[in-house]
Design a protein that fits this description.
The chain is an alpha/beta fold. The protein has a domain of 209 residues: Rossmann fold. Helix 5 links the parallel strand 2 and strand 3. The protein is globular and about 60 Å long. It starts with a helix and ends in a 33-residue tail after the last helix. The C terminus is likely disordered.
Length: 346
């Protein structure tokens, strides 16, 4: 079965890719096996990350980038991550709504994902989804993060080119003077430049970037756009292509790809270990005793964490898994997970 779905995805079959992405999200063992086969066939697409504060116009800008890439004859994959409710666990997936006009285009595949509490503006399923889109033969993969603050820097390790989108009227002229998310950009985009206060933001951003050392032979430019009006997007596409060419000439393309692989590996490792530790604490009495001792100030968090880590890591943690299934993760004996509806890619 895996070989069949893998062959269909390698031929660009949208239905097969959507089903595999859903199964990966549901953590079916067969989906993991298929992903292993696809991973060796991926690694050719240009991954462009788009990050910035909520309301900066990231989705509208991504929509215009898709349009420009399609006019240039490129096939495009979009991974749009939306914030998740901490109460219901649901997500609006509004980014998909803004790109509805591309749904009938066979050269465009859009996948919306919920952040599910992941830090850094990315979902845990992002890396798997990018691998599937890459193996499908997409030339360009646009990775739009959930709206994040200054600490949402994970996208820097998930893309070859990172766009930081800012817009006037949101305090971004002050944010430009601070460290954090503004240090990861390869291209800085001042969106909604038709507004009067956009010049102030551009000047503040220019001052913040003044004296920045070139990275990989590239000095980050500031591009002004008004995505809703289609203004500046053509120039932005040219700069994105120029950045890719610069990375290739400088020998930095391979380094960035290596960093992307490292980020995906560490994300899976950290999530698996975190899940293992949480499960051990829920099942055992030791953690409940530690929590009580901490509340009573009989011990301190550092000593307790050090002792607990030593005990837990002396055991053999299971393969990375993100859900409680009532059986060993990815075991063939695990019952199938009920499918969730309404999660297909466009």
């Amino acid at each position: 079965m895996n070989s069949l779905i893998v062959r269909r995805i390698l031929r660009g079959d949208v239905g097969a890719a959507a089903r595999l992405m859903r199964d990966l999200d549901d953590e079916l063992p067969s989906a993991r096996s298929a992903l292993k086969e696809l991973y060796a066939r991926a690694g050719r697409a240009h991954v462009v990350g788009i990050t910035g504060s909520p309301g900066a116009g990231k989705s509208t800008l991504a929509d215009k980038l898709v349009e420009a890439a399609r006019k240039g004859g490129k096939s495009v994959g979009v991974v749009a991550v939306d914030p998740t409710s901490p109460f219901s666990g649901g997500a609006v997936l509004g980014d998909r709504i803004r790109m509805q006009r591309h749904t009938a285009d066979p050269g465009v595949f859009i996948r919306s994902l919920a952040a599910r509490g992941s830090l850094g503006g990315l979902s845990r399923s992002v890396f798997d989804t990018v691998t599937v889109l890459d193996a499908m033969g997409k030339d360009l993969i646009i990775l739009e993060t959930a709206g994040v603050g200054q600490d949402g820097v994970k996208v820097a390790g998930a893309a070859h080119t990172v766009l930081v989108v800012l817009s006037p009227g949101q305090g971004d002229d002050i944010q430009a003077l601070k460290a954090g998310i503004l240090e990861i950009g390869d291209i800085y985009v001042v969106n909604k430049c038709d507004r009067k206060d956009s010049e102030q933001l551009t000047r503040s951003l220019g001052l913040a970037l003044e004296g920045t050392s070139p990275r990989d032979g590239w000095t980050p430019p500031i591009i002004k756009t008004a995505a809703v009006l289609g203004r500046g997007t053509r120039e932005l596409v040219d700069v994105i292509n120029e950045h890719r060419s610069t990375l290739v000439r400088a020998g930095a393309w391979e380094r960035r790809s290596l960093n992307m692989a490292r980020t995906a590996f560490m994300e899976l490792l950290e999530t698996g270990l975190r899940g293992f530790i949480n499960e051990e604490c829920e099942r055992g009495k030791d953690c409940r005793k530690i929590f009580g001792d901490l509340a009573a100030r009989k011990t301190d968090p550092y000593s307790a964490a050090k002792t607990t880590l030593r005990k837990l890591l002396s055991k053999s943690p299971p393969p990375p898994s993100f859900k409680k299934r009532g059986c060993p993760p990815f075991s063939k004996a695990c019952p199938p997970v009920p499918r969730r509806r309404g999660r297909r890619g466009i």
